[in-house]
Amino acid sequence: MKNLSHEITQRIRQIARPVKIMHVCGSHEHTIMQHGLRSLLPPEVEVVAGPGCPVCCVPSREIDECLQLAEQGITITTFGDMLRVPGSKSSLQEARENGADVRVVYGINNAVEIAKKIDNEVAFMAAGFETTAPTTASELLAGPPENFSILSCHRLIPPALEFLIESGEVNLNALIEPGHVSTIIGSRPYVPFSEKYGIPQVIAGFNPIDILMAVYMILRQLKENKAVVENEYKRVVKEEGNEKAQQVLGEVFDIVSREWRGFPQIPQSVYEIRSQFAEFDARKKFSIQVKEVKEAPTGCICGPILRGVARPEECSLFKKECHPLNPIGACMVSKEGTCQIAYRYGSL
To answer: Are 125 and 76 within 8 A, CB to CB?
Structure first.
């Protein structure tokens, strides 16, 4: 492994040129930081983290919606990382400490089981990208109990990428695409970015060799004046993706425009439950509405970090007021969050 990584880095150095590569996967950032991969790259090759943490991308508005449900006495179920993600004024963790029935589950199936066992309305806060959305869709198709509903916070990666490219804020030149998401959607949704914007792209796996190979493949494309989608993760990702999962998603969800944390409204970027499943859509079932929203705590720069224009070390709160035991911003909450990863592994 060591000899192989050395050979790849040598090849990278031979064809290196100024380039800004963005990845959009918390697992990629974890591997990069844990193994110090940025320190192995020549200085002109910059790899930046984008909105790759599904928990971090949930905006304050959707946390506030869930808090409204809790205030109505509804049992809230969600993943553990969601509890400390800040809303406008509070979090689910604080709501639980104040008496709300908020329960941590490992998946939507656990939430359904809770609904079957208790005599109360149960809402599942469903966060995640295209990777986890099919499990939500499958449970709805299976017919959950009447006292069960879903607050869909599922998001799509390709629309966020197009938004970042179009904005020009990051000035990115290439993309390392996420392996997990790509197992579901395949490689085809990324093709327009190469064709329209001339951006080289590589779908990558999650070990250090995968990521170093992705960087090398991008530099090779630039050297050959090419811009295509290459698949480094062929052992898992197929061009067509998981067509069964895609079918299930199409049956259950419409795709709508909505804001992300740190982003304005991104066109066609969020999965919303279709009208035929309205009885299980918490937004419609309980008529929740959030009007005024404060996006980030004072001093927090999670927005720029999620957009890839800032690093955690640039935040005045990082490692001071904000740390994993006291996360002020969403990027410090999850193990996939850029700030928590930077806290654990330093600045490599």
So the answer is: yes
DSSP string, 245-283: HHHHHHHHEEEEEEE-TTS-EEEEEEEEE-GGGGGGBHH
Closest CA to 140 of 278, 244, 246, 243: 278
Confirm if 23 and 49 have CB atoms less than 8 A apart. yes
Q: What's the start-to-end Cα distance of the chain, in Å?
A: 20
Burial of 10 (0-12, 13-18, 19+ CB in 10 A): exposed
Cα torsion 47, 87, 261, 246: sign: positive
Q: Whose CA is closest to 155, among 173, 181, 176?
A: 181
DSSP result, 147-166: TEEEEEEEB-HHHHHHHHHH
* CB count in 10 Å sphere of residue 138: 17
Which structure tokens are listed for 229? 């989608």
Tell me if 155 sits within 8 A of 136, measured CB to CB: no
Supply the mean pLDDT for the chain. Answer: 95
pLDDT tens across 210-232, in order?
Answer: 999 999 999 999 999 999 999 99
Alpha carbon 119 to chain centroid, angstroms: 33
Its pTM surpasses 0.90:
yes
- Domains belonging to the chain, first-starting first, are 1-290 (3.40.50.11750), 302-345 (no CATH)
Residue 2's pLDDT band (boundaries 50, 70, 90)? low
Q: Report DSSP letters for 180-212, one per residue.
A: HHHHHH-SGGGHHHHHHH---EEE--SSHHHHH
